[in-house]
Amino acid sequence: MNILSAADFNILPGSSNCYPTLIQQALKQIPEGSCLRFLPGTYNFLPGNAIPFSLRVSNSEQQDTLYGAVFGEGLHNITLDWQGSQLLFHEDLSPFVFLGCSNIQLQNVSVDWELPFSAEATVAHSSENRADIIIDPQRYPYRVHRGELLFAREDGTESPLFGVMEFDVHTRKVRPEAGDTFPKVTASPVGPGMVRLNGEFSTPPKSGNILVLRHGKRIHPGLLADHCSQFQVSAVTMHHCCGLGMLFQFCRGVTASQVVFSPSTGREIFSGHDDGLHFSNCSGHLLIEHCGFWGLMDDPINVHGTSVRILEISGPSSLRCGFIHPQSYGFSKWACPGDQISCLDRETLAPFGNMTVEHFQLLGEKEFLITFSEPLPSTLVVGDALENLTNTPSVTCCYNHFGSCRGRGMLVSKPQPVEIHHYLFESSGSAILIPGDANQWYESGACHQVSIHDNVFWECCTSQYQFCSGVISIEPEIPTPEKNTGFHENISVSNNTFISQGKSPCLYAKCCTGLSFCGNTIFSPQPDSPLLQQEYCSEVYQEENHLTLLATPGLSIQG
User: Fold this and answer.
1) CB-based contacts of 3: which residues, under 8 Å, 6+ apart?
2) Residue 451: helix, strand or coil by DSSP?
3) Residue-level pLDDT at 559
4) pLDDT average, residue stretch 61-87
5) Which pLDDT value is given to residue 552?
6) Is there a contact between 108 and 85 (Cβ–Cβ < 8 Å)?
7) Measuring CA to CA, which residue among 226, 171, 179, 231 is closest to residue 205?
8) Sequence-ordered list of residues with C-beta below 8 angstroms from that of 193, at least 6 positions apart, any chain
C-alpha cells in the first residue's frame, strides 16, 4: 500500500476552516491503493468551509442541501488513518461523507462537538406537576423565552427542547419505567442555572438523577455512506453527532469493528443524537463486531429496507408507487434494472409475485414509476406494497456491548441469514426487535433465518417503548395477523443467559413459524417469570430452559 502523509497536503493538527477543502483536494489527488495518514492530534474544524451536496438521507429530516467535512466521491481502494486523532466540530454537518466509493477503510479517530446538540441537567426537586432542574449555562448555553427552553447554537440560532430522558445517577441506565414518560412541558426561570419545567408528570423524575435534554434536528449523520461497496470502519469513537450515528444506505458489504458510541469527558450520559449504526437498503454481508454503545438517544443498530406503497396500476407491467414515511423518500435508485421485487399484501404482509425490474424512474421526490419484465400478479391492488429483495444483506453481530440507551437494542428485518452472538445487552427497551411493517414505518423485510445464541441479556426491557413486548420481541405490525402466521420463520434463541426482573417475557413472538427457544438460562426474582409468549405462531419448540430464582430483585451493574 502506498502511504501518504496528510501533512504533505498542508493538513496538520490545530484549528482551521480550510480542512474540508484541503482534505477533498487530497482525496482527489491520491492514487488508488493509497493510505492517507494523518498526524495524530486534535483537528478543530472551524465553521464556514464545509462541502455542500444534495442527497436524500434515510430515516432523517430531509434538507435540500447537506454539508460534509471529510468528503469523498468516487473513491476506490483508499484508507484514511487518523492515528488516534480527535475531530472537533462547531456546526451542523456530517463529519464523514462517502458517495459511490468502494474499498474504503476509515480508522483510528474520534469525533465530538464543541457545543453538542443535546444537553444534560440534574434534577433538584420534582412533583406531579413540575420539575426544577440544574443546567450548567457555560457548558450548555440556554435561555427561557415565552415558556420554551432554548439552547444556543454556535451559528447564533437557537434550538428548542423537544424531548427528555431520565437516567439513574448511580447506574447510568435509563431509569426503570421512566423511558419516554417525560411529558410536554413549559419552562420558566427559577434562578441562575435553574429552570422549572411545568407539566403533568405521571412519573416525576427523582432528585439527583440526570436528564438528557434533547434539541436539534436529525439531519446530518456522523458518517454517511451512500451506494458504496466493501466499506470498513474500525477503531472509530463517536462522542456525538447531529443525527444518526453512522448511516449506510444502499451499500454492499460493510464491516464495523471497534466502533464505540460513548459520552466524552465532561458529560455524564449522552453520546449520539439518535441511532448508532443504521443500515438502510443494503446488500452483501454486514459484520458488526467488538463494538460498544452507551448513551444513544435511539436504537444502537437498525437493519432494514424501505417498502413503498402502490398508488396506481399504470399498465400490465408497470406501477406508480410512493415513498410514504416522511423521513425516507427521494431514493433515485430504490430499484435498478435486474433487481428482484416482491409484492406484499397490505393487510397480511404476505408476499406474492416476485418480479424483475426493467425500468425505474422518479416522478418527483415521493413517487416513482416502475416497470417489470413480467406481467403484474392478478391479485395485486392499489394499497399493496413492494419491497426490494435485492437490497437485503446477511448480518453477523458478535462480541458487542449494548449499554443503556433510549429505545431498543438491535432491530433487524431482513430475509437473509442473521446471526447474533456473544453480546452483552443492557437495553432499556427490548434487546432485539424483529419487526416488519408496510403501514407505518415502511421498514421492510421478513426474517427467514435468525440465530440468537450465547448472549447475556441483563435487565432489559425495563421501560416500554413501541414494539417492546419482550426482551426479544418478534413483533411485525400486521393489520390481520391471523391471516399470516408465518411472516417470520426459522428463528432460534438458544444458550443465552437472561437476568430478568420478571416483568416481561424473555421472548415474545407474533406471526412466526419455526420458532425455537431452547437451552437458555434465566435468572429472575419471580417464580412464575414468563419465558415465552406467542401469538399466531406455529411449529414452536421450547426445551431445556432453566429458571433460577434471584434472592434480591433489582440486581444491576454499576457504572
Assistant:
1) 34, 35, 37
2) strand
3) 32
4) 97
5) 59
6) yes
7) 179
8) 134, 135, 136, 137
Q: Which residue has the cell 466540530?
A: 89
Bridge partner list, 310: 321
Q: What are phi and psi of 24, to 5 degrees?
A: -60, -40
CA distance 280 to 59: 9
Which residues lie closer than 8 Å to 545 by C-beta, 6 or more apart?
517, 518, 519, 520, 521, 522, 531
**What pairs with residue 494 in β-bridges?**
453, 518
Q: Indicate whether 305 pLDDT > 50.
A: yes
| C-alpha dihedral (13, 18, 22, 24), degrees to nearest 10 | 120
pLDDT at 466 over 60: yes
Residues, the chain: 559
208 burial via Cβ count (<10 Å: 0-12, 13-18, 19+) = exposed
- What's the rounded Cα separation, in Å, for the pair 251 and 228? 5
Backbone angles phi, psi at 219, to 5 degrees: -120, -60
When the pLDDT of each residue in the chain is averaged and rounded to a whole number, the result is 95
Residue pLDDT, tens place only, 331-371: 999 999 999 999 999 899 999 989 999 999 999 999 999 99
Query: pTM for the whole thing?
Result: 0.96
556 pLDDT more than 80 = no
**What value, to the nearest 5°, has the Cα angle with vertex 477 and ends 473 and 483?**
105
Cell of 556: 444491576
C-alpha cell at 17: 476552516
